[in-house]
Amino acid sequence: MIARDSLVASVLAATDKVVQQVGSGDWQAAQSSSAERRVLLDQLLQQEPQAAEHGFLRALREAAAESEAALATMRQHAGAARTPSAGNRLCTKA
Known about the structure:
Helix content: over 70%
Number of strands: 0
Strand content: under 5%
Distance between the termini: 70 Å
Low-confidence stretches: none
Oligomer: single chain
Largest sheet: none
């Protein structure tokens, strides 16, 4: 079993990694890092919380969920920006 402090540090490091990957537009890597973070967070949540940790773990879980939702939204918008709409097509009729 991985030590709690190491798991917390790993979850936070994975979050930083996701942010950096999103900033560089690497959506595939960000999605993968987000999945890795979810595994680490699940491992952390399976351990018995120490005194006064319940609030911290709940906040960490909620922040990760919000981050994943934001990542999904940003990925959708990035994909939509690359897909030309009918109004943006060049007219080829003479």
